[in-house]
Amino acid sequence: MSWKLSLQERQKIVLATSSNKGLPHAIVVLSLGLVDEKLLVGACLMKTSLKNIKENGKVSIAVMNSNEYYRIEGKAKIYSSGKYFDEAYKKSNPPMPKAAILITIREVFDLDKQKKVF
Hints:
Layout: E1 12-18, E2 24-35, E3 38-43, H1 48-56, E4 58-65, E5 68-79, H2 83-91, E6 99-110, E7 115-116
Antiparallel strand pairs: 1-2, 1-4, 2-3, 3-6, 4-5, 5-6, 6-7
């Protein structure tokens, strides 16, 4: 299977961020799928994650698909209007997102095979 299947719409993923002081923060979110080869997530009830993304944009994601596990590293950007926000809003169920998070995927690591796959 492909790591991209783990990011299909409505898949549960773990989104980890950190503050500029290095304080980690992780939450479970629903993937809204890949848009323009980037991962889309709706920011519905997030506070700390949004604050951390605004500070440095670095994210790490843990995903599982069937019996495959991946760690994904990327750079996140927040959109409160425009194409990506509209797409996130359209794909969401209540509570509705106040912003969209678009994550540029920089690296994908297969945790079972212990190797970089993207």
